[in-house]
Amino acid sequence: MLQPAPVHTAEAIALPTPFTIRAIYDENYRTKTFVLDGKLDAYPGQFVMAWLPRFDEKPFSLVNADPITLMVTAVGPFSNLLHEKKPGDLLWIRGPFGQGFHLDETMKRPVLVGGGYGVAPLYWLARTQMGKAERITVIVGARTGVDLLYSTQFAQLAALSSGTRLDWIATTEDGSEGVPGRVVDALLPLLSADAIDGIYACGPHGMLAALEAIGQQYHVPAQLSWEAYMRCAIGICGACEHGGKLLCLDGPVLGN
Ligand SMILES: Cc1cc2nc3c(=O)[nH]c(=O)nc-3n(C[C@H](O)[C@H](O)[C@H](O)COP(=O)(O)OP(=O)(O)OC[C@H]3O[C@@H](n4cnc5c(N)ncnc54)[C@H](O)[C@@H]3O)c2cc1C
Ligand code: FES
C-alpha cells in the first residue's frame, strides 16, 4: 500500500521572508548594524539566516528581535555584498533558530564576554537583564581599539538607572584601549575575587575554549555560543556538527 507523502509546511522548511532594511548604522570601519522593518518571536542568543537571492545565505545573531536587528562585520563575499545594501533594499530572513542564552533569576552577577561580532547577542542579553541582576560585567575583546564594538551602546545602558550596575571592560591585544591582552586577562581577577556567578560568551572558538576551561576550573557555570558553518539551520545537512551536537538545533549556545 502506498504511504502518504510527508507533509512539508512552510514553518518546518522555514522559507525566507523578505523584510525592508529600514536603517543602517556604521559601527566601525568594517561593521554595520542593519535594522529591518519587522519583528520576530525570539530571545538573546538565537540566530537567523539572512539570504541574498542568487548569492548565498549566512547565519547572524539577533541584536534585537523587535525590530529585527543584525550586526554584520564585512569579512568576505556575503558580508561585503550585504554592506552594499541601502535603506529601502530587501533582505530575506529565515528563523529564528537555535538555543540561546538562559539566565535564571538566581543569577545576580553574570559576566558577558564578547569577541568580535560576539558582542551582538550579548548586548541584547544585557538589555534583558537590566533591572534583574545586581551587577553585570561586560568584557569586550578586540585586536585594536578601533575594532571594539558597541562601546557607546553599553555606555548608554550603564547610564540607565535600572537598579543594576553595569561595568564595561574593553581588552585589546595591542593595548591601544582598555586592558592590554585578551578577555581572559580581564576575567581572571574577577573570578579570583569571587565577583562572578555565571559566564555568558560569544566569540571565536579559541576564546570560548579558554572560557570553558576557566569556568570548570573556578566552578562557575558557562553558557557559550559556538560558531559553525551553517547551511540548512534546521538539523538536516549536518554542516554545523560540533562535538556530536548540531549547533543549529542544540546550540549555538551550549553549556550549563
Ligand atoms: C550562529 C552564528 C551567528 C553569527 N552571527 C554573526 C553576527 O552577528 N555578525 C557577523 O558579522 N557574523 C556572524 N556570523 C558569521 C557569518 O555567518 C558569516 O560567516 C560572515 O558574515 C562571513 O561570511 P562571508 O561570506 O562574508 O565570508 P566568508 O568567506 O565566510 O569568510 C571570510 C573569512 O573571514 C573569516 N570570518 C568569518 N566570519 C568572521 C568574522 N565575523 N570576523 C572575522 N573573521 C571572520 C572566515 O573564517 C574566512 O576566513 C555568525 C555565524 C554563526 C554560525
Ligand atoms: S546547519 Fe544543517 S544541520 Fe545544522
Please tell me the CATH architecture of the largest domain by its name.
3-Layer(aba) Sandwich
Q: Are any ligands bound, and if so which?
A: flavin-adenine dinucleotide, FE2/S2 (inorganic) cluster
The number of distinct structural domains comes to 2
Q: Could you give the order of the helices and strands? A: HEEEEEEHEEHEHEEHEHEEEE
Give Rg in angstroms. Answer: 19 Å
Summarize the biggest pleated sheet: 7 strands, antiparallel
User: Pairing-aware structural class of the strands and helices?
Assistant: alpha/beta
Low-confidence stretches: 1-10
Helix content: 10-25%
Q: Count the strands?
A: 16
> What oligomeric assembly is this protein in?
single chain
Helical segment count: 6
Distance between the termini: 48 Å
Q: What's the mean pLDDT score?
A: 91
Strand order of the largest sheet: 4-3-7-1-2-6-5
Task: Give structural notes.
Helices cover 21% and strands 34% of the residues. Mean pLDDT is 91; it is low at 1-10. The protein is built from six helices and 16 strands. The chain has two domains: 10-96, Beta Barrel (Elongation Factor Tu (Ef-tu), domain 3); 110-225, Rossmann fold (3-Layer(aba) Sandwich). With 256 residues, it is of the alpha/beta class. It is globular. It has helices at 10-13, 77-83, 119-129, 151-158, 183-192, 205-218, and strands spanning 17-28, 31-36, 47-52, 56-61, 64-65, 68-73, 90-97, 110-115, 135-142, 165-172, 179-180, 198-202, 222-225, 241-242, 245-246, 253-255. The strands form three sheets. The chain has a seven-stranded antiparallel beta sheet with strand order 4-3-7-1-2-6-5. Bound molecules: flavin-adenine dinucleotide (FAD) and FE2/S2 (inorganic) cluster. FE2/S2 (inorganic) cluster (FES) binds at residues 230-233, 235-240, 246, 248. Residues 230-233, 235-240, 246, 248 line the site of FE2/S2 (inorganic) cluster (FES).
